[in-house]
Amino acid sequence: xxxxxxxxxxxxxxxxxxxxxxxxxxxxxxxxxxxxVPPKTAVRLAARHGVTLPAGARDGGDRYRFRNFxxxxxxxxxxxxxxxxxxxxxxxxxxxxxxxAEGGLRYREIAFNPQNHPELSYDTMMGGxxxxxxxxxxEAGVVSRIVVAINRQFGGEAALNLVRDVLxxxxxxxVAIGLDGDEKAARPSEFVAAYDLARAAGLKLTAHAGEHGxxxxxxxxxxxxxxxxxxxxxxxxxxxxxxxxxxxxxxxxSACWFIDYPELEVEGRxxxxxxxxxxxxxxxxxxxDPALIGPELxxxxxxxxxxxxxxxxxxxxxxxxxxxxxxxxxATVERLRAEFTAELERLRPGAYSADIQ
Length: 357
Ligand SMILES: [Zn+2]
Known about the structure:
Distance between the termini: 31 Å
Helix content: 40-55%
Radius of gyration: 19 Å
CATH architecture: Alpha-Beta Barrel
Strand content: 5-15%
Structural class: alpha/beta
Bound molecules: zinc ion
CATH superfamily: Metal-dependent hydrolases
Number of domains: 1
Shape: globular
CATH topology: TIM Barrel
Number of strands: 10
């Protein structure tokens, strides 16, 4: 974690107000369902189902405690094991969306890995998730779509079976296939058949790459998986050809503001959202795992605005960037863009004061 969200004395006090940034309508396309489950909910579900959570999930109060990616992944997988019924999926989906809606979230693409729940059928899990998402939309107006994510560690054959399962149980809200998990576990090239099948069926395609791995991962995602979007992608900053290519194509990057990996510091240069923005990449801000890594998206906006000294135009640009990167159908995108534009105009007069209604 680079800094506490909106720390006292932050430059945001002299720039855009935190109230304005919280009220700003927001859209994100990179957020993992189980990474939204707060510790108290994980502890309750684990107790109900007799699952033992790692100490870092039990003893940290409002936060999970872990020292590195592997420990964080261990907690994430234990949280996955604690979600065992359609009702559990409905409850965690609903809770996560309602929490984020308090910070201005209006649209989220939820990444969900069915392979991390091998004991449950795809349809059971998706039924619960969609019920929770529809309830949150009805109650708080936050729209959701689902990215079914392939976990790299299970390999290409399992990925192909997963895509077959997705296609056998179609839902309008399921808009894309993603790829996540440990970037060291398998190359993107192992998943070509799964991506080809998904593309042929009309699904959109995204993949995590260049978060821990190098830029060759990202080139494989572009050339072999033919992705429509890249999740993270910081390694592009070390590859001039890839950087120029993706600045030119303006393929969306779903980047995350709060990241703290040693490999992102190369030759004294930090590879992060600030550097991506300066390079001219098309990127939006995303919370990734707000409960596991934290914080919620509105805190990302508040901290980014302070550190990058955003103007109101910058804030509005990032508010709309998540919609432009989304895989929702055209009618939904147009509706959200119109709603956001009207709301941004309404909020503009209060951008530099705390007087937001
Ligand atoms: Zn992610």
